[in-house]
Description:
Helices cover 51% and strands 17% of the residues. It is elongated. It has 643 residues and is α/β, with parallel strands linked by helices. The protein has an eight-stranded mixed β-sheet. Strands 13-15-20-19-17 form a five-stranded mixed β-sheet, with no helix packed on it. Helix 5 runs antiparallel to helix 9, helix 7 packs across helix 14 (401-424) and helix 11 (335-359) packs across helix 13.
Amino acid sequence: MNDFQSGSSGASWITELTAFLLAAALLVVLFFELPAEVFSPESKSFILAVGIIGAWRYSWWFTQAIRSVWFNRRVFPELRTQADAVGAIEKPDALYVLCTSFRIEPEVTFAVYDALIRDAEEYGVPTTIFAAISDRSDIDVIDHVMAENNWPGNIEVSYMFQKGDGKRSAMAEVLRAISRRMPTHRSLLVSMDGDIKIEPGTLSRSLSFFLIDDALGALTTNNRAIVNGGDVTKEWYDLRYAQRHLVMSSMSLSHRLLVLTGRYSAFRAKLATNSEFIELVENDHVEHWRFGNFKFLSGDDKSTWYWLLKNRWKMLYVPDVNVSGFEELPDKTRFFTSTIDLMKRWFGNMFRTSGRAIALGPRTMGLFTWWSLVDQRLSMWTTLIGPTVAILVTLFVRPSFIFAYLLWVLLTRSIASSVLAWQRGRFSLLWVPLLYYNQVGGALLKTYISFRFNRQSWSRQGISAGEPDDPVAAKRQRRMGHLMHGLYFGGLLMVLIYAVGVMNPPDRMSMAIFNDEFHLIQSEKDKQKKGDSYWIALALADAPRGGQVQLPPGDLVLDATLAERLPKLEAIRAATLVGSSDEPTTTLLVDSAIADSLRDEQDRPLSETERMNCNQRNSCTLMTQEGPIELINMVIRLRSTQA
């Protein structure tokens, strides 16, 4: 417990001062190095990079911010007044608390249950706490907490040991146990993690909202962090919670949320004990065209959210009630590795559920909620457009453009961080680079996960799932994911390359120069000059025995390679070559090297006549090692005499 600092979750003043000095120095460099022509109308590539796409993305973000302010300043205060008034005279019939813990320090467990039991006793509602634990020592800790609080008469604690395969099975067992107690519509369930400490009054100030709206199916609250880690880690968690607060507030205006977080959420017990609800929590899975059928490991909060969304129950975010999580990175010494691991799990849960949620359509959840889910899929690509174009322009147009892009990043993220700070009640300069890291790094991770979202892992429990047991099949899936990811990103990159003018399609002069230099691009006339002997020889071999080969109209070239190709064939089956009887006629242009192989009806070689008209009455002959081949309906000329 001593490792967790329960004071301010923010960075120290020394860190903030250092960040300020570095930011000031960077601004000075950017202003001096910024090219004057960057913002001119001719700078279309840069305008595309930071203007058009940026305007679209930030217009949507500010829409969320305005909705958030409206909810917190106008809508929620009225709801709070109503809930407090009803909560003062009414209470739920019963309260059930599902608290899941896995290998959590005893000091943390004591703090969590002490806060929970004190608040439940104060609330005064008959309460059953189902402690899903992983170690027998947890029983001693919780019993000690109950003893410290004089064994409150309205609280019962029931213990259940987890299997260690994730908390889904533990949750399902508890929900079935609650269902056997026949909860009423006014009975409530709180689902929370074993490392979440609630503040005094959390139960009364959050659960009272169920009493004013019978259509409310679930709610969740604001979050804070008690962090065991450095200044950057503290600010990273606090920034994420600030972003969460903005989006949750905005979504709550539409009576829907994008997730019911597992840290602390409350449900109507009648809904949470529905057999379909329990089955989804325990055995949620997806059938995918590439990954097949695979079961979800984590993401139970997404499963519960999806069930309520599908069945059109309202959801609510309570911004003025905070629960505090004891947070630490999987590896405190490796910030980027640990945060990437965490985001992989969070984004994987999102992708595994959002697709089927989008399929429900806007009628089920409302247009704004539906589009917010669609935007999650779009934003991972649009977020990458700005940095990708900036890199392209910097590498291929003007190196100093990178300074303009950095200035844009500082400006936009500073404004966004200020808006977040206004609602959060505090600001840190570390939020500016961390916000960019969350956005761009998160977008890269999302694109990566979107092609591999079957791969799941849970660092605390050391388990993974989602891939086939057969290593060959698993490797094949991974290779396909790499291929599809490369094709999608390559397609985006090619569009951006042409859009910003880094690479333009070659004009006619460039094509001509390229052809003259390398002889790789050939016109139809050039192809004819190089000869049609190859395919005509194959056609003679592939035809039925004694059959004929129909030649197309126009000029065809028989060069010296015909004499080389025919002996290499297994057999020459065709007996006749027939040209086109309509206009234009078929004309064979023959190299002088093989002119003696072609003879007219009087057995004169082409080297003598230089021209032959072959028809049904006066056919010509091509002499081969396997016998003569009749030539009909064509004109034959020496190439040297062809104009």
